[in-house]
Each structure stands twice: as C-alpha cells, then as structure tokens.
Design goal:
577 residues, globular, Sulfotransferase_dom, 5-stranded antiparallel sheet, Rossmann fold, alpha+beta, 39% helix, WSCD1 protein, sulfotransferase activity, repeat, 19 helices, single chain, 14% strand
Length: 577
C-alpha cells in the first residue's frame, strides 16, 4: 500500500512540473505573437497613404504618444523612424500650391493630426488649472455657510454667473468667482457646478441631502443632486482678489420713457458711478444707466440696443440734471453682473434630422462660435473630439457622442472626403490664415487662454509649424467646398464686426427661431470665458517674407475657389499682407 502511494506522489510531482512548464511556454508564445501582431499593424498602417511615409518621430513627441505634423516637412530620415516606411516624396515646386496637391497634402496630415491635435488639450489642462491650485492654498476663509437648498436648473434662484469645473472645483474657487463679480451668495451643486446670485434660495432642504464631495477638495461638500450648498461670500478676507471693474460702454441717446425701459431705478443726490453700479449689481442687472441724479438698471433691449453710440461730448453734462442736452443722453456702464437671459442650455429633446457640422481650421474661432451658437439657440453643441478643458468650462456636449444628434451642431477640424460626407450640411468658419496660425500656435504652447512665449516664437518650431499648417488651412477650405453638401460660409472677421446679423444667419441656417432680446444678451456676453488674457507676445513680425509669400499664394488659391462656387471671396484684408 505504501509503495503504491509513493508512486502516486511521484507521478503528481512530475505532472505539476509539466503543467508549470507548459504554462510558461504558453505565456511566452502568446507574448511573441502579440509583439508580431503589433509590428504587422504598424506596417499595414504605414502603407495606407503612399505619401505618408518616412516620418521622423522626435524624441519629445514619442514620450507622450504624439506625432507632430510639422515633421512632414523634413524629407531626410531622422534618428527614429516609423517601422516599414520608405522615403517621403516631395512634389515638384510648381505643383505645390495647386488645389489638387493641397488636398493630397491634407490627407497626409489627417491621420497624424487626429492623434496629435486634441490630445494636447489634456496636457495643457494642468497649466490652465494651476491658478486654481494656488487659490486652494491661499484662500482659507470660506465665508458663512447658509445651508442646503433645493436647486432647479430650469428655475434657478441663483441666476447670476454659472461656472463648471468637473475636476478641480472647490468651495473657495466658487466663492472667489462669485465675489469677483459682485455677488453675495455662492451655491455649489453636483460637486462641480458653481452658481452665483444676490437672493437666497427660498426652499431649504435637509442638510444630509447635500452630500456630494467637491471634485477638487476632499472632505468638503459641494451640494448634491438638485441640491445647493450655499455660502455668503461678502465676508471674504481683505486679501481676496478685487472685484472686476465697472466697464464704461459709452454715451447713448436715452429712450423716451426710461421708467418703462428699465425695471429698476434710483434717484440719489450726488450720484456716483460706484453708487449706481453697486445698486444695479445688487439688483442683478448687467447695465447701469446714469442721467443726472437718476440711476436706471436693466438689460440691452430692442428699445435700448446699445448699437449706435453718441459723441461723448453730448454726455459731458449727463451727471448734471440740466446738462446732456436737457436729459436726452445718458451714460451707460457694464456692471460685473452677467446677463443671464441666454445662459440656459440643454440637449435636443429629439434627435436632429439634419446632421450639421461647425467646421473650421484650428485657431479660426470655433470655440467662440460654439459659445455664440449655444447661447443664441439654448442648445449644446457637440464635438468630433473630446476636450476636457472645454467640458470643464461648461461645454457639456464635449462628452456626448458626436453622432448622437442631440446637439445643435458638431465641431470638427476634419476635412477628408469620408468625414465631410457624413454631414448633411455645415457652417464653414474661415479666418485670416495669419491670425489662425498665430492663434493655434498660442493654443499649442499655452492652452486655450494663454500666449506662447517669445522663446517659442523665435525657435525653429514656429517656421516648421507655418510650413506644415499653412497648407492645411487652404486644403481644409478646398475640400469642404468640393465635398460639402450644403454650406454656409462665415468669415470670422465679419462675425466679429457684425455679430448680430451674422449670428442671425447662422441660427436660421440651424433652423432655430430666437428672439431679439436673446441675441442682444449674446452680444452682451460675446466674449464668454475664452478670451485670451495675460501678457501678449511682444511687438515683432513673426512672419518672414518667405512665409508671407507662401501664405499669400494659399490665400489666392482659396479666394479663387470660393468665387468659383459663387460665394463671396475672402475679405480684402486677407490679401496681400
């Protein structure tokens, strides 16, 4: 019996060793197959476009998995090459600016830029939120906690400014933002949303219903689902950031009946701009209007659109009851309060039957156009990409699938035949290539709101960038003209100069009806949160004569193509520079 047991034990030991050996061999074989499969995929991908070969991969780009389109300009093999690629063939010089070559060139860049362009935004996000981190440490005072209140997004009590930060929201950040805009209360909801106002919500909720932790501050409560954690912010310590200054809008002819035009008024001896602005801010109105000792508060309306200003000399006596041409003119100031008549936005309740693109070259103002469209129509815009920085700033359509048809239009920088033909119609936004190239270079090195440094502009990166991206600017327009089914051409400069007429065209193209007051509200909030701030680059000409010659040829090509399709040509300021 013992002998049989010993044989069984010996057999099991041998079996255990055999199983271990087979398992190890299986894992090694699987690893080899995986590596071989990866190599094949890379080689197959490199054969997709003949011109898309021998692309050097700079060391700094490979570390983050990004390939820079500017490397297409160098025909010489670099120290590191993609597997299985042959030499890049440059076209003949006399063919380099023809529409055919530009569209071919665009296909070379397309696959690379998809991986490069919008991944950069995630790398820039820490730069844009650095100020928020500093605020967390420097702002210790949290004001007075007023309690937990109900929150209805459709009928909000805190109707002032609204901010989102789905990664870094803190109580201090919300309070600072509201105090800067002269609001008395700050309310936080869903752990990431901040609302401002001067009136405390009426409906209180149970304290335990405010149970969402702040996204950027562990242990702190930032409201809950349909619940607001409300703080009084006027007690912020003296070291807090100063409130925004009141902005002088100009001298305007007063409406015939000021009392009917403006919903709030104040008569005060020795009235000052600060007194009137403070009064209107407390009433949550964006305009403060002064005529003599009278202060009026309200919004831009059809009766008072603020489109035709008067000579400032006519208002020289507006602060006196007998001056300003017997009270026919008034001084208008913008208070720190946000115009909230057009800030409500939502997704489409039913899927859109028409799939509309908002297409542009990078740096042409697509984000600004989205801001205008969302506030004019009341519907979110989507995106072919996902930009976390934009999502955190309130562009909620960023996370919605771009083909969901729940958004009013979809942002895209794509220009391939397949990508274009997926859309039923498109708003094609075109901007001066000189401005577009500079804006995109700023975004690349400093994010959506910053400026590239002088060192960036004077480095070899800038000429390489221009050489690669100037052709993309031209080919983007040419391909949309060729493959687009129904187009509305909008020039950035025209939209900036004549905002309401051009915005009306865009809204009508999207088949949405809006009121004049809503458009005036958009005009009052025209910049949104995406106007670049900080130190601009110094006054020097970034474009060499060689760059200008290259860009000007592309401008003439695009201008001719537009006129060939019976569109108006490019604005005169485009050519020549």
């Amino acid at each position: 019996m013992a002998k049989a047991f010993f044989r069984l034990q010996k057999f099991l030991r041998r079996t255990q060793f055999l199983l271990f050996f087979l398992t190890a061999a299986y894992l090694m074989a699987g690893s080899l197959l995986l590596l071989q499969r990866t190599r094949l995929v890379i080689q197959q991908g490199s054969r997709g476009t003949p011109a898309n070969q021998a692309l050097p991969v700079p060391d700094e780009m490979t570390r983050v998995g990004i390939i820079d389109p500017r490397t297409l300009q160098s025909p010489r093999p670099g120290p590191r090459l993609l597997v299985g690629m042959d030499a890049l063939q440059e076209p003949a010089l006399d063919q380099r600016h023809s529409p055919h070559w530009l569209m071919s060139r665009n296909s070379e860049l397309r696959q690379l830029r998809r991986r490069w362009f919008h991944r950069f935004s995630s790398d820039q996000e820490p730069l844009q939120t650095a100020g928020l981190k500093a605020m967390k440490h420097t702002t210790e005072h949290k004001g007075t906690y007023m309690g937990c209140f109900t929150h209805d997004s459709r009928e909000r009590t805190l109707k002032g400014a609204v901010f989102y930060d789905l990664r870094k929201m803190t109580v201090a950040h919300c309070q600072e933002a509201c105090a800067e805009r002269a609001y008395s209360y700050a309310g936080l909801a869903y752990g990431a949303e901040c609302y401002c106002g001067n009136t405390l919500p009426a409906a209180a909720a149970k304290p335990e219903e405010c149970n969402s932790e702040c996204k950027g501050e562990k242990g702190s409560v930032c409201g809950g689902v349909n619940r607001l954690s409300v703080y009084r912010v006027e007690e912020l310590r003296a070291g807090a950031r100063r409130r925004r200054n009141v902005i002088y809008r100009g001298c305007f002819r007063a409406p015939e009946n000021l009392t009917d035009t403006f919903p709030a008024s104040l008569i005060q001896p020795n009235l000052t701009v600060e007194m009137c602005s403070e009064f209107c801010s407390k009433k949550e109105f964006p305009l403060a209007v002064i005529r003599g000792q009278e202060c009026y508060c309200g919004y831009p309306t059809g009766r008072f659109p603020l489109h035709e200003g008067a000579d400032g000399l006519r208002c020289s006596g507006a602060r006196n009851t007998s001056g300003a041409a017997e009270g026919k003119y008034c001084l208008v100031y913008q208070t720190p309060v946000q115009d909230t008549r057009c800030t409500d936005r939502k997704f489409l309740t039913t899927k859109s039957e028409v799939f509309v693109a908002l297409s542009s070259f990078p740096g042409a103002g697509n984000t600004w156009a989205r801001h205008l469209i969302e506030h004019a129509t009341g519907y979110y815009t989507g995106s072919y990409y996902f930009d976390g920085a934009l999502y955190n700033k309130g562009f909620k359509g960023e996370k919605d699938h771009w083909r969901s048809r729940r958004t009013i239009c979809v942002k895209t920088h794509e220009s391939g035949k397949t990508e274009i033909e997926m859309f039923d119609s498109a708003i094609l936004l075109i901007r001066n290539p000189y401005k577009s190239l500079m804006a995109e270079f700023n975004r690349k090195y400093a994010g959506h709101l910053g400026y590239a440094t002088d060192r960036n502009w004077k480095s070899k990166e800038w000429p390489d960038f221009v050489n690669s991206y100037a052709s993309w600017w031209a080919s983007h327009v040419l391909e949309w003209l060729k493959y687009g089914k129904r187009l509305l051409i909008v020039h950035y400069e025209d939209l900036k100069q004549s905002l309401i007429p051009k915005l009306k065209e865009m809204v009508e193209f999207l088949n949405v009806t809006v009121t004049e007051d809503r458009l005036l509200c958009v005009e009052n909030n025209r910049d949104g949160n995406f106007k670049r701030s900080g130190a601009k680059q110094k006054n020097f000409e970034p474009f060499t004569q060689e760059m200008k010659d290259l860009i000007n040829r592309y401008i003439l090509t695009v201008d001719e193509a537009l006129r060939g399709r019976n569109f108006s040509g490019l604005p005169r300021e485009y050519v020549p520079r």
